Amino acid sequence: MKTAARRLFLENLGANNPVFAQVLGICSTLAVTNRVRNTVVMSLGVIFTLTAANLIVSLLRRHIPARVRMMSEVLIIATFVLLFDILLRAFSPEISRQLGPYVGLIITNCIIMGRAEAFALSHPPGLSVLDGLSSGLGYAYVLLLIATIREILGAGTFMEMRVLGEGWMPWTLLAMAPGAFFVLALLVWILKGWVLARPAVEGSPS
Amino acid sequence: MLNEFLLGVGIVTGLNAFLALLLVLAERTLSHYGPCTLTINDEKKLVVPGGRDLLSTLKSEGLFIPSACGGRGSCGLCKVTVLDGGDPLATEIPWLKPEEIARHVRLACQVRIKHDLRLQLPREWFAIRQFQATVVSIRDLTHDIKELRLRLVDPPEIEFQAGQFIQLEVPPYELTDEPVYRAYSISSPPSNRREIELEIRYVPNGLCTTWVHRHLNVGDPVTFNGPYGQFVLKPGNRPIIAIAGGSGMAPLKAIFLDMAEKGMARSVRYFFGARSRRDLFLVEEMKALETRIPGFQFIPALSSPLPEDRWEGETGLITDVAARHVPDASEAEAYLCGSSFLIKAAIAMLTERGMPRERIYFDDFG
Amino acid sequence: MNPFAAWFALFFAAVFTQNILLTNYLGMCPFLGASREIKTSFGLGAAVVFVMTFTTPLNWILYHRLLVPLGLEYLSLIVFICLIAAFTQLIEIVIERVSDALYASLGIFLPLITVNCAILGASLFMVARSYTFLQTTAYGFGGGLGWMLAILAMAGIRQRIAKNRLPRGLEGAGIALIIAGLMAMAFTGFTGITAPF
Questions:
Q1: What are phi and psi of B61, to 5 degrees?
Q2: Residues of chain A neighbouring C75 (CB-CB closer than 8 A)
Q3: Contact list, C66 vs chain B (CB under 8 Å)
Q4: In total, how many domains does chain C have?
Q5: In this structure, are B160 and B113 located in the same domain?
Q6: Mutating which of B4, B9, B16, B52 best tests the A interface, going by the most A Cβ atoms within 10 A?
Q7: How far apart are the first and last CA of chain B?
Q8: Predicted confidence (pLDDT) at residue A205 exceeds the cutoff of 50
Q9: Domain range for residue B223?
Q10: Which of A16, B357, C48, C185 is the most buried (most CB within 10 A)?
Q11: pLDDT tens for residues A51-83?
Q12: Is the confidence at residue C63, as pLDDT, over 80?
């Protein structure tokens, strides 16, 4: 069981990464990665919701009737997102304002619904929590990578602190919508084309 | 404070209850398709409640359609001919050949029963059931083949023809999260209706074989369904050439034991191939058949005998051994069972020696 | 100003200058994943148009006539998503009953729509921008149409390049993102156009 857990954890970070391998959760990826600070907050929200929702769905998995399955999952996810949204508005109103409706849109983040359906519904709570955590972390580090590139080159700052000199002409395109698409495309290209494309070393198929 | 809390919870609960009610009503009224009549093969009529998919509906009626994925459209095994069910869905197209689509073949798990349907099912499927059984013995036949003996619990008896196979259900365990099904030939004769024997060869990382060899114990419950298959003895009097390797012994053992019990006399030459002596098994039992079936000859051969085997029998690949013994195969019929490689080589050898393709029957173990 | 023109101006904005997909990044997952063929994209787009056109005004009613009078605006997230989920499931049941052909082309996409961020996003933006009911109808319909336009364009481009050899690693999501980026750049040109409100 331990090796299965470890395999799951590593897979969700790498070969089965929700963002560049499964291509899920893109909407928020593009919207918030213009600032590293916002990305950190968004990642926390996603990790929190993923883990909590996976836990609850897994605990209830034998009791959810088939017809209302989607509505139940959505309700569970929405509750946690709402919780996060209100907490954020209370403790960090400035960031909440900047993120705007995108915090609420964590509900529709395909990763969360996807993991609930594909994993939490058919696995025990312990593994589901691990799955949620690792998928969330897999999402987080990819986003932080993109955000770092976009903020440093697009605005000359990192976490709101100026890192590039005053004379730096910001690459405004990176701070806008197209920039986000291009940076993500570049990342996917590098990761899928080189890092993940190593020939399989495991045993031959049965 | 409390008021606000109650109000909030109340509104959300009320709204959801209302929406859920709407959905339930919609499903009751709109998805309620009433009883539908399924006409099978233009003779058998079944009245079933409409609205569900064909696969699970037939299963509830006791009719088992082969399926390995549990109705999710990911195995393509549940093909049935539905004469008036409309066009196949996008989920079915990858599994259907164009000529099958022209013949109205559909995947039973993707067909929703909304009105009366006319189906065509192979006759053998009517005998297929799901069985619960208990393991009564696990015996080593060779270093990597185990003989599994199951006693039937519910239903307590099975009727089948010698040479048919069942689908054994592997429950979720270390190597798989969901139940999977694997086919194994029944190696015991049909006269024994309460117990069946299977021969299972260990394959590294094989989902079912690992379960049987490493996790299954005497007394454990197992589930299987069947019987399936058309690899059975054909009526007639033609001399038989049988070629098998490894666990390919299983269906042939059932067929030959059945022949012996029924007192049949027929010319049979059974060529069984293995690598070295430790891969041979049931040699005495097969040799004993030579006295029980007039005309039966058992010819084992080793392809790579070790010096300590002190083997004095035939050597070489089993198809080559058979080729030496059968210069002319034009009058005989053949029963082949084993790996794809063996089957292909044997077919080539037999056709070369004059056997028409239609008289070569085989069970390909992959 | 002529209310007709005002409605149309907002509608036009929702489709082009404020395209919910290319300007607000909403509804990306099916956009990248399911946009290889024009036929499937059309079905998906039509489903989005249908759902967005109806759920956004319905959510407006729920928000302004139920939540606001009771001071429960903070619950809007849950209420909106539940309505969208229930609505899509209801429509799926209706379509399945009414027409097999329609179900085959549209119905199978409906479960995906529930989690389409564009649908929920439209409702959330409607609240954030304090639209009136009439404005909401323009925004809902326009937003859906704009989304469908974007996905059809994407599918058209992808079908065109389907036979081209791409660098390994760019196939699939990679090239789709680059196309999306270029489309987004093109649509940025629209922001110069101001609606004569």
A1: -90, 5
A2: 82
A3: 11
A4: 1
A5: no
A6: B16
A7: 69
A8: no
A9: 129-228
A10: C48
A11: 999 999 999 888 887 667 777 888 899 899 999
A12: yes
Best C21, C24, C28, C59 member to test A by mutation, with max A CBs in 10 Å, is: C28
Which chain A residue shows the shortest CA-CA distance from C25? Answer: A27
Taking an 8 Å cut-off on Cβ atoms, the answer to whether C93 and B23 are in contact is yes
Residues of chain A positioned with their CB less than 8 A from the CB of B52: none
C151, part of any domain:
yes
Whether residue B30 lies within 8 A of chain A, CB to CB, comes out as no
Query: Do B188 and B301 reside in the same domain of the chain?
Result: no
Structure tokens at C140: 């809902």
Opening angle at CA B232, ends B230 and B233, nearest 5: 145
Q: Which chains touch A (3 or more CB pairs under 8 A)?
A: B, C
Q: d(Cα A174, Cα A148) in Å, to the nearest integer?
A: 11
Domain count, chain B: 3
Residue A23: list chain C partners with CB under 8 A. Answer: 29, 32-33, 172-173
pLDDT for position A1: 54
Sign, Cα dihedral of B99, B105, B107, B111: positive
Query: Is residue B30 domain-resident?
Result: no
Residue written as tokens 């039966």? B296
Q: Which helix (H) or strand (E) holds B358?
A: none
HSE of B324, CA atoms in CB hemisphere, 13 A: 10
Whole-complex ipTM:
0.76
pLDDT on residue A204: 32
Read off the pLDDT of residues B277-305 as tens digits, 9 standing for 90 and up. Answer: 888 888 888 999 898 888 899 999 998 88
Q: How far does the CA of residue C182 sit from the closest CA of chain B (Å)?
A: 31
CATH of the domain at B177: 2.40.30.10
Residue B236 CA: distances (Å) to CA of B298, B359, C183: 21, 12, 73
Q: Which of B108, B125, B142 is the last residue of a domain?
A: B125
Which residue has better confidence, B159 or B31?
A: B159
Q: Which of B11, B23, B112 sits opposite C90 (nearest CB)?
A: B23
Q: What is the pTM of this model?
A: 0.62
Question: Of the ranges B89-93, B117-121, B194-198, B302-306, which one carries the lowest mean pLDDT score?
Answer: B89-93
Is B41 within a domain?
yes
Q: What's the CATH code of the domain at B72?
A: 3.10.20.30
